[in-house]
C-alpha cells in the first residue's frame, strides 16, 4: 500500500515536471513588434531593402541589424525559452556577446517595465536558451529586445505546453506615439550591456512611447537619402544624434540641407539636435579633442542658422549635459556603458518632452 | 634655394614624426605594481602557487587571473602603447573582450584619477595596441589595470624613444593602506565594461588606498584554507563579499568558523560583511529568489552570533542598500554593469570608512 503511494507520487512528480518542461514554440512574427520605422520586406530588419536602395552600403548593411526592435507578448507560462538564429557570428572588442547577439526580456509589472532576464549567447549562430523559469503562472505582458549589433534570421518563443501566448490585449508600448532617433553607434547601442540598455530602449520603457532606433554604427553621416527616408517615417519627434560620425567638414556641408529638407517636408514635427558626446579620450588625445570640438561648433552653426531663419520647433542639447563629468560613462572613451546610457536617457528625455509639449 | 628649403622642411617633418612614432618598451615588471595581496612566484598572478596549495582547484586557477592588479608609472611620452600576451583566448557571454582580456589606463590629474583610454583586445593571444597618442608632453602619472578574467604572461609598455618612463616618484596609490576584498564574480569584476570599473578598482581610485581584489568567480565559498590565507594578508580592513556563491547550507556551516578564525588571528582588523546582491532574475524565478533570501538569512545569523559573542569591529551591509531599486544594475540579473558597480562602490565605501575610523 505504502509502495503504491510512493510510486504514484513519483509518477505525478514526473508528469508535473514534464508538463513544466514540455515546451511549445510561437514564431515571433505572430506576436506584436515594436521599434520598427515601417514594415520591411525581411521582418527583423530596420529599413526595407527597396527604401534603402540609395543609401550608403554601410547603412544598408547596418539596417539589417535588429537594434531597437522588440517583441511584445502575453503569456501565463512559468517558463520562457527562445530559439533564435543569427545570420553570422560577431566579435566586438567593446561589446558583450549578450548585447550584440542576445535577447533581453522585460515584464510590465505594476505599471512599469521591469528587467526579467536575458537570452544569453553561446558561440555559434543557432541559439537556444531558457530565459526564465519557475515564475508564478499569472498572465503577464513581456517585451523581448532583439540583438543590437547582429540580425535575427528567425526567432521562436517557447512557453509551457499548457500555457497561452498571444499579442498583448493592452500593449504597454503605444505605437501611435513615435520618437524616431537617427544617429551613430551611440544610438545603435554600443556599448550597452544588453539590448534594453541602449538609450532609445530605456526611454521607450520610461515613456511608453515607441522609440525607433535608426542608429548606424560609424555611418550616421547625414547623406540626403537618409533625410529623404526619415521624412517618410511617421514620427511625433525626430532626434538627430548624428554628430559623432561625420567630419567637421561634412557637418558643415551636409547638416543644413539635411535638416532643412526634413523640416520642410515635416514642418509640424519637432527636431531635437544632439551634439556629439565629448569623446573622453579626446581629453588626452589633442587631435581627437579638437575634432570633437569642431564637430559641435559646426552643428551649432547650423542650429543657429535655422533658428535665425525662423524655424521654431528645433531643439538643441549640448555635449556637457549628456554623460556627466566624472569621465566614467564610456568603455573606451567613445561608446557608452549602461552608466553612460542611463545619463544620456536622463539628458534626452526632458528635451523631447518639451518638444512634444510645445507641439501644435 | 626655395627647393632646398622645402626639402629641409620635409626631412625635418619626417624625422619629427619618426621620433614620435619610434617606440621603446619598458617591461612592466620594472615599474610599480599595486593591487597585490603579497608577492607571488609568477608576477601577474594574485596568489603565490605555494600558498594556494590547499585551496580548491577553481580558486587556484582563478588566482592566476590578474583582476585588480595595476601598473603605476610616470612618463612624459605623447604616446602610450602596450604589448601584452594572454595565456589563452577567453569567451564570456556577459563580458566584453576589453574587460576580460584588455587593459584600462587612468592618469592622475589635479588630485584625481581620470580615465584616459583602453588597450582594446583583438582576437588571439598576442596583443599590441596604441592606448593613447597626441598627448601633451608634460610628465604624468598613469595607472594601467590588467585583465579581469584572463591572465598576462608578459606586458611591455611603449613610450616615445626620447621620453622617460619610471616608477612614480609620488605614487597616488598608498600601498601602506590596504583593503582586502574576498568575494565572488562581483568582486572579480563581472560584468564591468573594463578593468577599472570593478568596484574595488573604483574605490581604489576614490580613496587612494590599495584595494586588493580577491574575487574568485563562482568560487568564493569560504573554505578554511582561504580564511588561513586571508589572515596572512596585510590589511587595514577585510571586506567579505562572498555570499553569492555558497549555498545557504554552506553558509550556515562555513561562515561562522571562517570569520571566527579570521577575527581570532587578526582581532584588530575590522571585517565588513556584505550580503549577496539580490539576483534580479530572482524577482521572477521563485527558486532563485528563495535561495538568495536564505543565503542572506544565514550570513545574518552568523553576524548576529559574532556580535552576541562581543566581536565589535564587524560591520554589516544589507542587500537592499547595494545596487538601487530600478532593477537595471545588472547585465543578466546576477552580474553588475558599470551602473551597478558605481552604486556598489557608493554603498561599500561609507561602511569601510566607518570601520577604518573606529579602528583602534
Automatic annotation (TrEMBL), chains A, B:
Limits of the SGNH hydrolase-type esterase domain: 177-353
Full protein name: Hydrolase
Organism ancestry: Bacteria, Pseudomonadati, Bacteroidota, Chitinophagia, Chitinophagales
Keywords, alphabetical: Signal
Organism: Niastella koreensis
Superkingdom of source: Bacteria
InterPro entries found in the cross-reference section: Ester_Hydrolysis_Enzymes (IPR051532), GxDLY (IPR032740), SGNH_hydro (IPR013830), SGNH_hydro_sf (IPR036514)
Domain SGNH hydrolase-type esterase N-terminal: 23-165
Annotated signal sequence range: 1-19
Amino acid at each position: 500500500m505504502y509502495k503504491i503511494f510512493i510510486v504514484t507520487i513519483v509518477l505525478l512528480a514526473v508528469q508535473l515536471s514534464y508538463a513544466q518542461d514540455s515546451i511549445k514554440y510561437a514564431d515571433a512574427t505572430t506576436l506584436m513588434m515594436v521599434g520598427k520605422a515601417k514594415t520591411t520586406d525581411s521582418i527583423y530588419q530596420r529599413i526595407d531593402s527597396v527604401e534603402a536602395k540609395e543609401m550608403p552600403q554601410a547603412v544598408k548593411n547596418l539596417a539589417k541589424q535588429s537594434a531597437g526592435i522588440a517583441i511584445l507578448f502575453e503569456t501565463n507560462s512559468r517558463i520562457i525559452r527562445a530559439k533564435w538564429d543569427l545570420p553570422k557570428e560577431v566579435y566586438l572588442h567593446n561589446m558583450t556577446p549578450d548585447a550584440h547577439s542576445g535577447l533581453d526580456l522585460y515584464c510590465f509589472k505594476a505599471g512599469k517595465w521591469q528587467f526579467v532576464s536575458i537570452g544569453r549567447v553561446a558561440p555559434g549562430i543557432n541559439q537556444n536558451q531558457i530565459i526564465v523559469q519557475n515564475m508564478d503562472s499569472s498572465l503577464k505582458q513581456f517585451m523581448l529586445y532583439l540583438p543590437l549589433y547582429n540580425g535575427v534570421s528567425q526567432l521562436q518563443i517557447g512557453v509551457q505546453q499548457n500555457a497561452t501566448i498571444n499579442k498583448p490585449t493592452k500593449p504597454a508600448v503605444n505605437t501611435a506615439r513615435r520618437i524616431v532617433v537617427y544617429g551613430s553607434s551611440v544610438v545603435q547601442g554600443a556599448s550597452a550591456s544588453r539590448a534594453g540598455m541602449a538609450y532609445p530602449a530605456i526611454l521607450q520603457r520610461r515613456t511608453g512611447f515607441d522609440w525607433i532606433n535608426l542608429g548606424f554604427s560609424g555611418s550616421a553621416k547625414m547623406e540626403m537619402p537618409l533625410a529623404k527616408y526619415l521624412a517618410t517615417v511617421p514620427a511625433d519627434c525626430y532626434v538627430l544624434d548624428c554628430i559623432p560620425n561625420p567630419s567637421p567638414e561634412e557637418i558643415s556641408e551636409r547638416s543644413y540641407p539635411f535638416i532643412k529638407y526634413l523640416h520642410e517636408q515635416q514642418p509640424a514635427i519637432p527636431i531635437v539636435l544632439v551634439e556629439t558626446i565629448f569623446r573622453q579620450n579626446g581629453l588626452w588625445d589633442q587631435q581627437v579633442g579638437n575634432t570633437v570640438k569642431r564637430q559641435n561648433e559646426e552643428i551649432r552653426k547650423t542650429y543657429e542658422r535655422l533658428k535665425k531663419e525662423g524655424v521654431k520647433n528645433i531643439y538643441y542639447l549640448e555635449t556637457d549635459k549628456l554623460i556627466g563629468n566624472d569621465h566614467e560613462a564610456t568603455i573606451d572613451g567613445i561608446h557608452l556603458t549602461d552608466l553612460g546610457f542611463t545619463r544620456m536617457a536622463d539628458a534626452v528625455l526632458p528635451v523631447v518632452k518639451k518638444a512634444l509639449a510645445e507641439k501644435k
